[in-house]
Sequence to fold (508 residues):
Amino acid sequence: MILKKRIQELLRHLSVGMYEREEIVAVSFLGALSGQNTFLYGPPGTAKSLISRRIACGFEDPSYFECLMNRFSTPEEVFGPVSIKELKEDRYVRKTEGYLPRAEFAFLDEIWKSSPAILNALLTLINERRFRNGDQIEEAPLKALIAASNETPDDKQGLDALYDRFIVRLMVPPIAQSDHFDNLLDSPPTEARVTVPPELVVKQAEWDSWRRDIHSSVRLSNETRTIIHLIRDALHAQHEILKVYVSDRRWQRASMLMKAAAFFNGRKETNHSDALLLQHCLWTTNENREAVAEIVAKAVQQSGFDGDADLAALDRAKDAYDKEIHQELYHTEDLYETVEHQGEHYFQVELEDYESYGHGRIKSILIPSKELKSANTFKPRTLRGSVLEEVSCKFDSQGVCEIKLDDGYRRTRVVKVTPSVLFHKGDKKTGVNKRLVKALTQQVLELKNELETVRDQVQAQVSAYRLSMASTFVPEVKTELAYKGVQAQVERLNLRVLDCERLLSLCQ
Fold:
């Protein structure tokens, strides 16, 4: 927690005068602490270069390089001029002192506008931290490269591999709030360099030690892994729409960023607030940026605690009990009053004054109960089982049977009848075995007790978890979103307990 407070105080100094840039500075600084490169996306004049210079101020005596790129930029401007002395000795060697290969921090503005020769050389340097200078390989001390542009690379430029090396991608919009804008108008130009107390700045030995500790002492929690898989599945499902591809390398580096966030927040494992940082790692264009952020937020909200209880198994057991209770104790469909004839069940319908020309006076007919839910036209039978050819019947969707009676003299009479219901669907059965009722009651009660135990355990976790979810690198409004997600798990467990109480009431 001492380290967390130190980083918070350090970020406070770096963000002085940076209206609405606090989160951007914090996440960019986290990228530098964990050795990740950052891409700042936004229109001109939104302090992208200023952010880069401020990040470098957080480190002790950093060597810093900055360059505005354009299509006429030459490798000499970025990697250093060719040494004339070495060239006379037939060696092609650059004088790299003061240029990117010797910089600990670098800012490349409008990076996508530079020439292919520069971009290709950058690929190896920022990925492997090495620079080929003539026939020698120089180790580059680069801690973090920050690039900026008001556009993302076009698919046809062949820059996918380079763009993929920028793990952190941040939108830098113009100031939105009126009061912040008014403060900007009244303020002098913001200084690129700020004075940070010596006890706060990051030393080289600390940076090296922290990176080792991040890898060795911080783990991805099961909850974070669940969130990652939810996001990955969502991106795959929406690939045709969003066109977002996340390489294995990007997932690995993004997990390192989350571990670093946990480390500098004083934790040994990641949590939901760290997973929110994935919204800055996975988008590729401005068109899919907000959609990716929504996917990340939804995954964080959907993921609760990964406890010891198998909730899926408990849900299956509850559903099984629910089904058994309704099957054994309650009528699952309307039960009608019927009579049996030659192994078939019929509704017996009484008629008045019907004279059949084939069977004489008929007082009752038999209607097959199997036709109740069909839309067929069929013939009824007499009580003796003979088919009445001159009578036609048909059920409607409401269970009413329309009977057309033909007396043989071209006179038709229509009668509508509704079969009598003995027991409606949902009515409790009578004469049910008491042992069965007792056994079902005991099973549901045991399940309810188990769910209450799980709920109480999760509730205890949530209370403590809210404090640990506060993050130096994620605004409170976003961590509150993460908290609501885990709180929703408690509410879902409460609903399961209430559903068990419903089942117990059904057994009474």
